[in-house]
Amino acid sequence: MSLARTSLLAILSVSATASAQTADPLAPLPNQPTAPVQIRPAAQVQVQRAPVSSGFEGYKQQLTAKARAAGIREATIGNVIPYLTLDGTVMRLDRAQPGNIGNPNATPPFSPYRRRHVTSDLIRRGQANYSAMWPYLSRIEQRYGVPASIMVGIWGKETSYGRVKGNFDVLRSLATLAYEGRRRPMFEAEFIAAMRLIDQGVSRSRLRGSWAGAMGHPQFMPSGFNRAAVRPLTTARECPRVHARHSRPLTMREWRAMGVAPLGRSLRDDDRATLFEADGPGETAYLVTDNYRVILDYNCSNFYALSVALLADGIIGR
Hints:
By secondary structure, the chain is an alpha+beta fold.
């Protein structure tokens, strides 16, 4: 999936007739607990039960089994899994993510987030990097169809252009997040991918990154590095849960007929766009094009996609 070189979004004046949902679910819902199943032995049968380890130590046995099943070398397993411990900071940060049930910070408005993540400093340094790296960026843009401004916007959003890459032990973070269980299949798969990097010769000391397990300038997850940091078009993930929050896409001709007009930008009558009211009716709203949905497929969060798009616009002076 690629981004064509067209507009990503436009700030709007919105008539009262247009509406879209406002909450931004930044994390999947936790798995619903299931009722415990009681298994009783038949009458007059003595059942010998093997001892079962509980807690994180018991869960490490499951990780060991999964790593073996995935073909991870025994030396790698033995050098990593027995020494893992839970990271309480990682658990607190994960539970504080907007959109979690029971989290008092759930669904904050976008405008304060925008002030923190689309700053004049990020725009200024993004413009400098954009100019300095244009020969390289332009070749990537030609090859993959991703606008250079979006690449620089993602770089700025993820690590402040390489300044803040994180110093968490990635394997410990991924094991902690998998054990916590809210997104266990995802983080177990990423843990195995990180173990595979060690099998391929990457030093454990180099596996440092964010609390959620992302590494490097673009903050790729371990599975991204295993795919050589270039994802084939056939493996692009869709983000239907967030897409469903937007209005249905209409042409700009249809939006204008409803009284929705972009401010300071022009979109062609035949351009398709979706209305997104990030802060609710009556506040700043956005018309987002199909390109915006590609960013959502990269990172399934409206706040992320909006901040990247706005930062990219600032970098090229829109």
